[in-house]
Amino acid sequence: MNTRSRIAAALAAASLIALTGCGANAGATNAAGGDFPKKGKTIDLVVAFSSGGAVDTAARLIQPILEKELGTNVEVINKPGAGGQIGYTQLTGAAPDGYTIGATGSPSVVVSPLDPSRGAKYTRDSFQPLGRQVIDPTVIAVQPDSPYQTLKDLLDAAKANPKSMTASTTGLQTGEHFAMAQIQESTGSEFAPVHFSEGASQATTAFLGKHVDILVANVSDVVDLTKQGKARVLGVMTSERAPALPDVPTFKESGYDLEAGTTRGYSAPAGLPDEVAKKLEAAIQKAIEDPAVVQKMQDLGLQTSYLSGEDYKQYWAGQEEDFKKVLPLVQKTD
Amino acid sequence: MDTLNELMGGFAAAMTWQNLLFAFLGCLLGTIIGVLPGIGPVAGVALLIPLTLNLDATGAIIMLCAIFYGTAYGGTITSVLLNTPGEAASAITTIDGYAMTKLGKAGAALTIAAVGSFVGGTVATLGLVMAAKPLGELGLLVGPPEFFALMVVGISLLVALAGKSMVKAVISGALGLLIAMVGIDPVAGAPRFTFGMDRLLDGVSFVAVIVGVFGLSELLSYRKGTTTPNVHAPNLRSLLPTGREWRRSAPAMARGTGIGFGLGLIPGMTGSVSSLLAYGAEKKFSRHRNELGKGAIEGVAGPETANNSHANAALIPLFTLGIPASPTIAVLMGAFLQQGLTPGPTLFTEHSEIAWAIIASLFIGNLLLLVLNVPLVGLWTSILRVPTTILTALILLFMVIGAYTINFSVFDVFVMIGFGLLGLALRHLDIPLAPMVLTLVLGPLMERSLRESLEISQGDFGIFTSRPISAVLIGLGLLIIFSPLLKLRKPKALNEDPET
């Protein structure tokens, strides 16, 4: 009895190892691209932030249209942590066969490889940009019962008593952290950053529970909160007012010439076969520019601003130059 | 009164035959997906969202909610019968669930799990109806310091899981924390203990570790010839729990409901924390705590009730604040958005009929799940009639498939095998396995909340004692840790528990 069960177990193990081996080989050989995407083979869309945040929501909105365009399943996979680095590592580590694509956002994707202490295993060249979707400006919000009514009130107070107020970021060297560094450098106002590395919904939760004083976030994160009266947005870091928050003055209007925000798009691991890249780029453009998606993005406070893969690549390179200049600020403030 | 009227309206909307059909289909599909190893609720709901896109908003959300708790129950079936958790939240159920299967009581375990799921889910949904708004706000009181303090309470239950030797329990717990550290540092972004392997940047997969440590190591220990696989096919009488089992389950279900409900309200808490702490609570407070681990019904009733209570309570922050409290809820939130509904308080003002129909369907879905699963218990347990030789091989097959399908990665299969060997070694050394699982789940959450708290206080540890909720919780944790010491000082004759 015992011997038989032992043999049976060994046989099962052996056949399984053989089977999984076959599966891996089959996956590796169809990278040529002509028949991409194979029907029934799932495309993974890696989101480097937790579910429920803005990046995730955008990915989930385009997912059904990508499925229709490509004629196969597209599955959104969340790999949050370390300000996006975990997800980006997974994305760039995947085979460039088109079956793994990912949402890429700056500054996270641009900045994480610049700082050697983070030990990122990818650079800008590890990505093949496929299309830019939106630009989402940074905002500063206070609790509804806060004594500060204007941006100037708040920044003056933070200048008089540096680090007396806590402010949320979505992780070290994220857009919010960069924005805070920019503010500190040009105005001398300093907040104590609290890094919620799990993402925007964690930061928002802590702000709603009044565990942090100030919410540094993107326009899209605060539109609904403003409607509910749970946050008072004091300033938007763009040159023009955000359509979703028409009553909120820009930093420029308040006398601070500062701009910051996050950009989101989609990329694949570098080295896609041309034909595969073309198909993916076309499907992504269709999905981003789909009127229903644009409308839903607008409802969420996000302005669609499409760029093709090539233009997104140029834009990415430009951003890298800009961020290299301010990087010491972010390292210095922490 | 208003609430009741609106709820009745919701029932009227949910009780159309189409919506009932969607709820039924959802439960059935969810259960099947849950039975498939490796595919837990997150992947299950995500996979089935496309099915619902062409339905109207109410029908689609009703079906998805049904799929959501269907998967939660389905995961239990493989935990109990095959010692392979279908999803992380039912991992701890394998300990007593599979032990019951070996005693020929698989049917009772599955029935109790179904009833417990129903109780937990229904009570949590009642909470959603009666007091969603204040409860949602209550969850917000838990900031990073309170979250950390809760984790301290969780870790303190290690004492309860210790068994004979506290030192061995601490070794096991420390091992779990060490394994939890593997991967990218969540704050600074530097890789830790990855030995240059990219696969380890994400840390080791929890389900693969559990399947290895509990399932595989047990299978391997049969092969040594010390124990023989002793799985009895249940006879008809043993399909239903005995009166004694019902009575023993009731308090466990009550505790499980409370733990799952409380933790479910807190954004960022996962269902596996609830089921683990419910198991720990049984180990600590149940009248039959000495039987736990050897096939005690409490070890199934507590965690399974907590798991479902958590899943339904986690909908409260979604409905009241628009915050997805867990990964599965976030997938549901995506489905809401695709249907043009923004979850949050505005849902009740702008789409109140849909909101109430969904809530009504939660009650219906929980009931359907019970009606669907109790008669099926006989069908599921007939798996055990398969001869042992073949069944052992089948279980191994399920373990390998289960580990593989988590991330579709062969690496996880090796992780599972590696941890199977580690589990075997620990069994040899008589080191308990449960503390390791506890710290493995709580470790990352504890680290994150500790670091966030210290950023808020700018390095001052006083933040944990100066805030009332966290001070009370930390005090409770210390009390649990030191209570065995207090007991030791009593004269031996007064000591009720001969094993401590």
TrEMBL record, chain B:
Pfam family, one: TctA
Annotated keywords: Membrane, Transmembrane, Transmembrane helix
Regions crossing the membrane: 20-49, 61-82, 108-131, 138-163, 169-188, 200-220, 259-279, 313-334, 354-376, 383-402, 433-449, 469-486
Every DUF112 domain range: 20-438
Keyword Transmembrane helix: yes
Protein name (database record): Tricarboxylic transport membrane protein
Organism of derivation: Pseudarthrobacter oxydans
